[in-house]
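Why run this: before we spend reagent on co-expression, it is cheaper to look at a predicted model of the complex and decide which construct boundaries make sense. The entries below are exactly what would go into the expression plan.
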Amino acid sequence: MAKFEPKTIRQSKQRNHLLQLLRSTDRHPTADWLYEQLKKNFPNLSLGTVYRNLSLLIEQGEVKKIHCGSTFDRFEANTQPHYHLICESCGTMTDLEMPGMYNDLNKQAKQLTTFTISHHKIEFYGICQKCARKDARAQNAHAETQRHKE
Ligand SMILES: [Zn+2]
Ligand SMILES: [Zn+2]
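The model came back. Tokens follow.
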């Protein structure tokens, strides 16, 4: 017989698991991805619970929500100020730490305005190494077939 476990304990266990999962990955996952991973350990988990736990962790300052415009929001446990590199080919989001830059930019902006600045966000767009390698391979293959035609 299953051991009796009060609901509140079960919920905090799920929340802990969620936080550990976020801390163990740098992929800036969506709530859906987190849900799929957690379901392996908590078969009765609902997506609503994942969202509720995420909100709680955000309130506690353990997790940050990244607004991604029209696409699904992503989440991360890296709450230090940092920038993001976004691959235009595969959509992966990678952290880029530039602490000096972060403080400098806040300072510069403060000097230019009477606006009270709390933080800022920067996203760099380009092609990740994986996709760049794939591109290079595709181009080589193309060049190879061109050569055979001649
Ligand atoms: Zn990529
Ligand atoms: Zn990040």
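The beta strands are 64-66, 74-76, 83-87, 93-96, 123-126. The chain has two domains: 1-77, 80-150. Bring this page to Monday's planning discussion.
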